[in-house]
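hey can u check if this looks right to u? its 409 residues, i copy pasted from the old doc so theres a chance i mangled smth
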Amino acid sequence: MTNRRSAPPTQAGSWWREGAVVAVAFALCLLGGALRVDDTVTSPPATAYVLAAVSSGLLAVRLRAPVAIVIATTLCGVLVAPTGLLLTPLMVAPTAISAYSLAVRTEGPVTPAVLLPAAALLVAGPPFFEADFSWADTGRLATVAATPLVAAVLGRSTRHRRAYLTIMEDRARRAEETLDDEARRRVAGERLRIARELHDLVAHQITLANAQATVAAHLFATRPEQARTSLDELVRTTRHALDELRAAVGLLRQPEDTSALTEPAPGLSQVPELLSTFHRAGLAVSMHEDGTARPLPPAVDLTAYRVIQEALTNVTKHAATGSAEVRLVWNRDHVIITVTDDGEGSRKPRGHPPGYGLIGMRERATAVGGSLSADVRPQGGFLVSAHLPLPAAGTPARRTDGATDGEGR
């Protein structure tokens, strides 16, 4: 998402704007020079043209030197009364415009430090130079003195409004960037989750199929009947792998369609069936439990199943052994799952591309608040150990359908 901002004014547009400001100030000064004390309007004298031209012309550079232009236009206003002209708010229009620009472009005490003396200077001369000056003219001079001050107040208000808009634009930009970052994090997390699921679904079935094909090839010449049995198992395994892959891809293509999810998410209750598939592939797996089993939250239950599945898949792929052991130790606040074997090929052969099985298991365990370690055992073989959290005693584990599990296994 792109952040739209107004484009800066072009050089030509800036000159047109400044020219309009100078022209308006010049016209106001001439109109003020035509006014008289008796409220009549006459033709402006030459001094009015000179003062109007000088004071309004100075405004062309007010943005570069705002303080100096305020002082210069104020001095032009001070010369109004000595030249015989009537000091009115129109005659100090250039001072008001420069005061506005000063307040917009500066912050702090600079503006009042410049404008208060300027207002005092503007009204100091008329009592001495205007003929027939009376106290009735005091209101007019008060208006003259207030004109640059009011302009400065408007300028300060404009400055604050621009600062507020800048802050709001910056907040909107940061919020937009935060939303983009969050969306990217969610997409990355979803991609990682999909990658783990596909790896667990496909790699397990392909590994079993490879083991069954190896057994069938080994028995084909000597015991053809057993080889036929292994081939039948191979057909069932590959068919199941295709069904799972088709369901996963269908769910990704049509996320609102849940018809592909014909089976609930696996958990520890499906582990015996899982072990039987490895047994048919030639891997003898024993399972032991210590402690009292308790219901697991769906995410932890699925993680426990996937850890056992992936660990046994790695044994089938990399360990030169025909047996493995799965052990579950139930404690008060966590369950420990260990999968061990005594094979010699627990590590991948040199030059083999790295896999993602162990990475996926660690990510799954970490995602549910647990941990996982995997390493070669000192006495030989490989050990995978996962520590997964349990809900507090007496707290029912919530299922994905919103109900709660009953008694423990």
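The chain has two domains: 11-175, 267-409.
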